[in-house]
């Protein structure tokens, strides 16, 4: 995602530096300018969206990691308690403490 975002930003820079004034006649120049403007906008939108996706994926990865850690801790706590309560019967043992 980082590479995609950077690629879009680079493409936008390349497009901004391109000239359409050497295409031939006024109508072609105007059409080229409109095309360039539309693509600059589109590329900037793609860059913004890919950056937002990248950030969202980072947040999601952190949330999964935190959830996984919490589950591991809960099972570890339950395992410790189940050793102490095993003599009283398994009905009271809970993996969540």
UniProtKB/TrEMBL annotation:
Lineage top rank: taxon: Bacteria
Region Disordered, as annotated, extends over 1-21, 74-97
- What are the Basic and acidic residues biased-composition ranges? 1-13
Protein name (record): Uncharacterized protein
Q: Report the source organism.
A: Streptomyces lydicus
């Amino acid at each position: 995602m980082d590479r995609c975002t950077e690629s879009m930003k680079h493409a936008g820079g390349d497009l901004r530096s391109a000239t359409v004034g050497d295409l031939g006649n006024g109508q072609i120049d105007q059409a080229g300018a409109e095309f360039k403007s539309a693509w600059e906008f589109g590329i900037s939108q793609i860059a913004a969206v890919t950056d937002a996706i990248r950030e969202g994926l980072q947040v999601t990865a952190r949330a999964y990691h935190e959830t996984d850690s919490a589950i591991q801790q809960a099972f570890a706590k339950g395992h410790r308690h189940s050793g102490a309560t095993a003599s009283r019967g398994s009905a009271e043992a809970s993996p969540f403490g």
